[in-house]
Specification:
The chain is of the alpha+beta class and about 525 residues long. It has 15 helices and 23 strands. The radius of gyration is 23 Å and the shape is globular.
Length: about 525
């Protein structure tokens, strides 16, 4: 007979911040109730809960595509717990960042004040593969370009939450936030009785509200659609999930037609005008008149309809210039420039490689830094210097020297760990956090929790599901004595400030310097 409470018998924290245990091996305050409950479970109990999870996911079709195969989305059953106080700071920092990036996008496709001020070099913007001149001068209907944002955070070895990257094009994963929570309520109902966890289930309603508020002027009851590339897309489950939850049509490019700068949806009863498109199709495939002429995934003329103010595209075209990794180091400066505020969340220390001196310094430390392609996604192309073999280091060195604008280097961050169920029981695995923010033009709302992604392999730092990662339910606790809130709304806007002084090497301060400045 298996022993009760044996799941953590072999758990040994690694050289990183542990979410559940402090440096003395004591359980952190917010995890104590969860720890005590885990101690009542045997492996047989836990395996039975895992089977229940798998049944719930199969019943709801919660899958993702990996290597051409549909698989159940991997959910680890030990949740991540975040206190109400820490979450308030995270939500404030995420909303602040979204507001600044919104202002940046409006600026670079408009008057370009931040570039004239020298805060963000013009060359960094115009050489981005995601900067589209077709978007210049367009004032999106509703005035919003970033309707949905996913801001990736990591906790470093000192316990500091830092921003790893921004996702402003078509960030994915929020459907798993909602479905993970639904599965956990089936698997561990008694845990929810012992914790006061802020809900995430109202995200689809909030998204629908944000999309409705961004409709073209004069449209009081907009027709909204979700545009998907189709069933073969890795995130198709999410597309269909959100359309179903919002009660709107899920369409493909072949279901749309644009005439006289007005977008219509083809239905069995004729054409129906469309006012808002929540698109899950990349920019390059959205409009063959302006981008890839052979694309069959979008609709010819939709950009012209948006320019005429007859349709809202969410997220708007050209947002990728703001989440280009070469632009990322300048976001703290954007926050000061546009909002007149110090960044709440620091960046990871990052080095721009188009400067000769910085590049030479970084290449001398090939095996000490993390190397990332500036337009990469899903963890692809990343080379972690301290763990890379000689061949990989030589290849990245040659790539950086050939195209320095296409790479950044970062100091390695020892991503925090949390107990995660593997064959040998609960073991520490590295994780990150992707909070999702909705922007309706007046407020930025951050869903309380977001997607915690976990690297399932021992010592692995790549958390993306496309690279074999999994997820955890993220529990944001309600404040003591307070009713459970639906999240934290932060007002949009903010005063402008004078431009920052230029930094050496055209770089903004490192993460450590920013943190020191905030103290």
């Amino acid at each position: 007979m298996e022993a009760v409470g044996d799941l953590l018998d072999t758990y040994r924290p690694v050289d990183a911040w542990d979410e559940m245990f402090d440096g003395e091996g004591e359980t952190r305050l917010d995890y104590r109730s969860l720890y005590e409950h885990v101690q009542t479970l045997s492996r047989a109990d836990f395996d039975e809960r895992c089977a229940t999870r798998d049944r719930v996911f199969r019943d709801h079709g919660v899958t993702y595509a990996h290597s051409g195969e549909e698989r159940p989305f991997p959910l680890d059953l030990v949740p991540r717990v975040i206190s109400a106080g820490e979450w308030a700071s995270i939500a404030q920092g995420v909303a602040q960042r979204v507001r600044a990036l919104e202002r940046f996008l409006d600026d670079v496709y408009g008057s370009g004040e931040i570039m004239r001020a020298g805060v963000v070099p013009r060359r960094i913007v115009v050489t981005s593969s995601h900067y589209h001149t077709a978007c210049a001068g367009i004032a999106p209907a509703g005035g919003v370009r970033v309707h949905v944002a996913g801001i990736d955070l990591v906790r470093d070895e000192h316990g500091q939450m830092c921003v790893l990257e921004d996702n402003l094009r078509i960030p994915s994963g929020v459907s798993y936030v909602v479905e993970n929570r639904r599965a956990m309520t089936h698997v561990f109902p008694e845990l929810f009785a012992a914790h006061r966890v802020q809900p995430v289930s109202d995200y689809p309603a909030r998204l629908l509200q944000a999309l409705s508020r961004s409709a073209p002027r004069g449209v009081d009851d907009p027709t909204i659609v979700v545009l998907t590339p189709g069933v073969h897309n890795a995130a198709y489950f999410e597309h269909s999930f959100l359309a179903r939850q919002m009660g709107v049509e899920l369409v493909e490019g072949r279901d749309l037609v644009c005439r006289d700068n007005v977008l219509y949806m083809l239905t069995t009863s004729g054409e129906e005008r469309v006012d808002v498109v929540y698109r899950r199709v990349d920019d390059e495939f959205l409009d063959p008149l302006h981008f890839l002429p052979t694309s069959m995934l979008g609709c010819a003329g939709i950009v012209n309809a948006a320019r005429a103010g007859n349709v809202t595209i969410a997220n708007f075209l050209g947002n990728g210039v703001a989440d280009d990794k070469a632009v990322y180091p300048y976001v703290p400066a954007m926050i000061e420039f546009y909002l007149g505020e110090r960044p709440v969340l620091p960046n990871v220390e990052t080095f721009m490689l188009d400067d000769v001196e910085v590049r030479s310094w970084a290449l001398d430390r090939l095996d000490e830094l993390v190397w990332k392609p500036t337009d990469g996604s899903g963890g692809r192309g990343i080379v972690i210097g301290p763990r890379a073999d000689e061949r990989s280091l030589l290849e990245v060195c040659a790539a950086v020297q050939a195209e320095p604008r296409s790479w950044i280097a970062q100091r390695p961050v020892a991503l925090s760990t949390a107990p995660t169920y593997v064959e040998s029981g609960l073991q520490p695995r590295h994780l990150d956090l992707r909070p999702f923010a909705l922007n309706d033009g007046e407020n930025v709302w951050v869903v309380p929790g977001g997607l915690t992604r976990v690297a399932l392999g021992e010592g692995n730092l790549i958390v993306n599901s496309s690279q074999g990662g999994g997820s955890k339910d993220t529990w944001v606790l309600a404040p003591d004595g307070a009713a459970i809130e639906n999240g934290i709304a932060v007002p949009a806007g903010g005063p402008s400030v004078e431009p920052l002084a230029r930094q050496p090497f055209d770089m903004v301060p490192s993460a450590n310097e920013q943190a020191a400045q905030q103290q």
